[in-house]
Automatic annotation (TrEMBL):
Residues in BIG2 domain copies: 228-305, 313-393, 506-583, 595-671
Sequence ranges assigned to domain Carbohydrate binding module family in this UniProt record: 401-484
Superkingdom of origin organism: Bacteria
Pfam families for this protein: Big_2, CBM_25
Keywords noted in UniProt: Signal
Signal peptide: 1-36
GO term, biological process aspect, one: carbohydrate metabolic process
Protein name: Alpha-amylase
GO molecular function, one term: starch binding
InterPro entries: Big_2, CBM25, Ig-like_fold, Invasin/intimin_cell_adhesion
């Protein structure tokens, strides 16, 4: 008879007993006990899954017998949902063992002497946390990696305990299976009982057959003396780590000759600090976690404090703009940046500025250089053990001219018809008639030639119609000059360097120091710009960005990275401009979650035939976050997974496939079948129970020993 028949038989028996009692009372002419014509059921409206709760019948005698009232529910135990009365009478305790996969509701009813009352209870699911594994502990258990040995005398017992990983796993039950119940047995309470002499295997399963431990048991013979563990101590005490670091712990078990010295490690919060079976801690994120070492029923704990990871380390420091010149008494602002693999990074480190010769040039803590006296000096910036140097040349004389302006009396050829035909010394002449000169002031026309290298200029004048003026009218004798301003006073070649009137000195060029650069989202950088000539009348800089959604720039030249992409930053002064490109890279974002997807994956489960492969994918949230993806399988004899997420089915059974990215994990239960059919079935499990829920069903129904069909 199946367990369902047994359950329904109990219900029928209780109901039949109540009816027979009622008939007996009527046949004897007795008066049935008085009770309220209407009674009600009271209890909670909502309960969490797996919690126990009570329903009480109000309006019935307080001493009503169990056989006098029949309790029923709309959900008797099946593969997905169950409600089970723990005791009866006018108060019944129920176990809300609803499926973790969905919410549900049940209607509980009580029938007493023909009257029925009902109560509906909503059962809410709890977040399901997959089981990654478990460890066994117990006196005399010896071994590791899922294989243990145990020696017992006939009639002897060992009480075992289990440590589940993670500690908040939803499913934390064991099912014991003995290969020979005449030698050893184990109950749901974890107590191993030696029955008779011999050797056999005792297997503990959890969550289907995904996780198991095998104990090789020998009963009788020369049974060694079991020496219990007296204490466990973790060496080194509390630990402080930075996120991303790892540290291996060790523990001392006393006495040194204890029978079971195997240590089981666990953590109170794997999102802060995880620990593996060897005691290796991995710091995940800022916070605290308690690490426990347990052996032979004894334990010790330490506190792990995880601090936020340090900023991205830099590998160099660079002064932007390179070597430069400055006049004595003038200043020049230097800017330095930190780089990691060529990309600018932020840091709280201090920039230390120094000058090799403060008699020539000084520099303050902010990188502002002041020219003191003619000469050269090295300006050095140091950050940690990284440094960079530029040379500064201090001049006492006027800086070399960047342009030459030539003036000529407009009375000679006319204010609107005077041309300048010129060339740099030994260079190429302009195309005749040359550049048209413009009206200046005081009866002069002028033309400015860009001359950053202060070259000598050879030139003549003409009216554009064949009439020329060279030096003094002497053939082959042209005007020659250099400097900032040249004023030709007559056609004899006389000239001076004093401008005839107050004139506007135009900007010849604009340059941005450092060239193209890169920033991460949220970072900023101040650009340095040079306007030539230094005495230009209007050196006002206007800044602009081609795309403010990627990078903005303010009036002082500070660029702020907004989002990933490229933008062009332009500096303009008096019609001249210079541009650089800023490339904005995404900031490092924390990973909130990771989930497994792939063909056939449904609700955290996947079925694959032996020999076939499925490509799994790790989906990271948010999508802009990055991290290293690690794949693992709980049983490589069932299914393997490589570093790219390719799963290969090896042999029949079940395995948990786990993906880990920056401390975030997700698991997938894969069932490997042969020809699409699962061959292993337990005889007591109804056909409607999914293959992966067999062991869970057996545990819930109190069946803790037995055989797999045919084995």
């Amino acid at each position: 008879m199946s367990i369902f028949d047994r359950l329904h038989g109990i219900r029928k028996k209780v109901t039949a007993g109540a009816i027979a009692a009622a008939m007996l009372i009527a046949g004897m002419g007795l008066v049935a006990p008085a009770y309220a014509a209407d009674f009600t059921l009271v209890g909670p409206d909502t309960v969490p899954s797996s919690d126990k709760f009570q329903i009480t019948a109000l309006g019935l005698p307080s001493d009503v017998a169990t056989d006098d009232i029949t309790w029923e529910t709309s959900q008797w135990r099946n593969a997905m949902q169950s409600m089970w009365p723990m005791n009866q009478g006018n108060t019944s305790t129920w176990d809300a063992d609803m499926s973790p996969y969905e919410d549900g509701s049940v209607t509980i009813s009580a029938t007493y002497q023909g009257q029925t009352a009902e109560k509906t209870v909503t059962v809410e699911k709890k977040p399901y946390v997959y089981l990654a594994g478990f460890e066994l502990n117990g006196e005399g258990l010896d071994g590791a990696d899922g294989e243990y040995t145990l020696n017992l005398p006939a009639g002897g017992t060992v009480e075992t305990s289990s440590t589940f990983t993670p500690e908040n796993a939803t499913y934390q039950h064991l099912v014991w299976q003995t290969m020979d119940p005449s030698v050893v047995r184990a109950g749901a309470d974890g107590v191993i009982r030696a029955v008779g002499n011999g050797s056999t295997d005792l297997i503990a399963y959890s969550y289907g057959r995904i996780h198991k431990k095998t104990i090789h048991v020998t009963v009788g013979g020369d049974t060694p003396i079991t020496i219990p563990v007296e204490s466990v101590s973790i060496n080194g005490g509390d630990v402080t780590m930075q996120a991303g670091e790892t540290k291996s712990l060790s523990a001392t078990v006393a006495p040194s000759n204890a029978t079971n010295k195997k240590i089981a490690w666990s953590t109170s919060d794997a999102t802060v600090a995880s620990v593996d079976n060897a005691g290796k801690i991995t710091a995940r994120k800022a916070g605290t976690a308690t690490i426990t070492a347990k052996a032979g029923g004894k334990s010790d704990t330490i506190t792990v404090t995880v601090e936020a990871a340090l900023p991205v380390p830099f590998d160099s420091v660079k002064i932007e703009g390179g070597d430069f010149s400055v006049k004595a008494g003038d200043t020049h602002q230097l800017t330095a940046v930190l780089l990691a693999a060529g990309v600018e990074v932020s840091s709280d480190d201090t920039f230390n500025w120094t000058s090799s010769n403060t008699d020539v040039a000084s520099v303050n803590a902010n990188g502002l250089v002041t020219g003191v006296a003619k000469g050269t000096a090295d300006i050095t910036v140091t950050v940690g053990d990284k440094s960079d140097i530029v040379a500064v040349t201090v001049t006492e004389d006027e800086p070399i001219a960047n342009s030459t302006t030539i003036y000529y009396p407009s009375s000679k050829f006319g204010a609107d018809s005077t041309y300048l035909h010129w060339r740099f010394a030994n260079g190429t002449w302009t195309t005749a008639p040359g550049d048209k000169m413009s009206a200046a002031c005081d009866g002069y026309v002028s033309f400015t030639i860009a001359n950053p290298d202060a070259k000598d200029i050879e030139f003549v004048f003409n009216n554009g119609a064949g009439q020329w003026d060279n030096k003094g009218g002497i053939s082959g004798q042209n005007y020659m000059a250099s400097g900032q301003t040249v004023v030709v006073t007559d056609n004899s070649g006389n000239y001076s360097t004093t401008a005839p009137c107050a004139v506007t000195i135009p900007v010849a060029s604009v340059s941005i120091a450092g060239g193209d650069f890169a920033l991460k989202e949220g970072a900023s950088k101040k650009l340095s710009v040079t306007v030539s000539p230094e005495n230009a009348t209007d050196k006002t800089i206007t800044w602009a960005s081609t795309d403010d959604s990627i990078a903005t720039v303010d009036a002082s030249g500070v660029v702020k990275a907004v989002k990933a992409g490229k933008a062009t930053i332009t500096a303009t002064a008096d019609g001249k401009s210079a541009s650089v490109t800023v490339t904005v890279a995404p900031a490092v974002e924390p990973i909130e979650s990771v989930s497994i997807t792939g063909t056939g994956v449904n609700n955290g489960k996947l079925s694959v035939e032996t020999g076939k492969s499925v490509q799994l994918n790790a989906v990271i949230t948010p999508s802009s976050a990055v991290g290293v993806v690690y794949w693992s399988s709980s049983d490589s004899s069932v299914a393997t997974v490589d570093g790219t997420g390719k799963l290969t089915a090896k042999g029949e059974g079940m395995a948990a496939i786990t993906v880990t990215v920056s401390g975030r994990t997700d698991s997938l239960i894969v069932t490997v079948t042969k020809g699409g059919v699962s061959s292993d079935r337990f005889s007591d499990v109804p056909a409607g129970v999914p293959f992966h829920d067999e062991i869970e069903w057996l545990a819930a129904n109190g069946i803790s020993t037995g055989y797999v069909d045919g084995r």
